[in-house]
Amino acid sequence: MANVGYDHTPFLPDSEWRVHDGQRPQPTVISPGATSADAPSDAIVLFDGTDLSNWQKVGGGNPGWKVENGYMEVTRSGDIVSKAEFGDCQLHLEWAAPAEVKGDSQGRGNSGVFLMGLYEVQVLDGYENLTYADGLTGAIYGQYPPKVNACRQPGEWQTYDIVFEAPRYDGDDLTSPAYLTVFLNGILLHNRQPAQGPTGHQSLSSYNSPHGPSGPLKLQDHGDPVRFRNIWMRHIKDYDEA
Ligand code: MG
């Protein structure tokens, strides 16, 4: 390898590498998608608009959601989960609340994106729809409202880009909570926000029930015909795994 660095520079703190170390391993080369919404070469595509082969009902079985015109749609047949499991990950997903507005508050365009099947980023038609703040579009449900309401009008496609860090346990003891960074339509809603625990309803969350290091992505059937498309994931590697 060409000598591109320096060997007389100081070592970085807690590191075997010097500043500008030419021997430090190079990052893996990947190919970006055509746009930042398109899956890069190392992404795991969970839904490309054609079928639900990467999904199942909670507990197993074929999901009953409708697939047409490049999207999937909730059909009151239950939540669905990805067959693949993820711990630390980057998620891209697009969704649309029903164009025909029905109901109000939590009864309008409600669905949800559950990281590890446990930590919900709320999907809701929050456009001119008053509801409790920690249940608004992009809320870490029941815990933290989004920093802003950046919801588009019903029927319009919207994007979530989420960085999720799984919690860490030492035995039954929590050593690091789950962290969520969430963008809605490119706008920051949560910046590495620690979650209080898996999502609950009308209850406090806690980490009192330790869970494994990975879990599926879950999409919620809340009874409203919400649509999803272009869903892809990337595993996040630590620097020493590069
Ligand atoms: Mg929901």
* Annotated CATH topology of the largest domain: Jelly Rolls
Number of domains: 2
Order of helices and strands: EEEEEEEEEEEEEEE
In percent, how helical is the residue content?
under 10%
Which percent range describes the beta-strand content?
Answer: 25-35%
The set of bound ligands, ions and cofactors reads: magnesium ion
**What does the largest sheet look like?**
8 strands, antiparallel
- Overall body shape: globular
- Are there runs of 5+ residues with pLDDT below 50, and where? none
At CATH level 2, the architecture of the largest domain is Sandwich
What is Rg? 20 Å
Strand tally is 15
Structural class assignment: mainly beta
Task: Please outline what is shown here.
The protein is 0% helix and 33% strand. It has no helices and 15 strands. The protein is globular.
Indicate the topology:
Blueprint: E1 44-47, E2 55-57, E3 66-68, E4 71-73, E5 80-86, E6 89-96, E7 111-115, E8 119-123, E9 158-165, E10 168-170, E11 173-176, E12 179-184, E13 187-194, E14 215-219, E15 227-235
The protein binds magnesium ion (MG).
The site of magnesium ion has 7 residues, from strand 7 and strand 8.
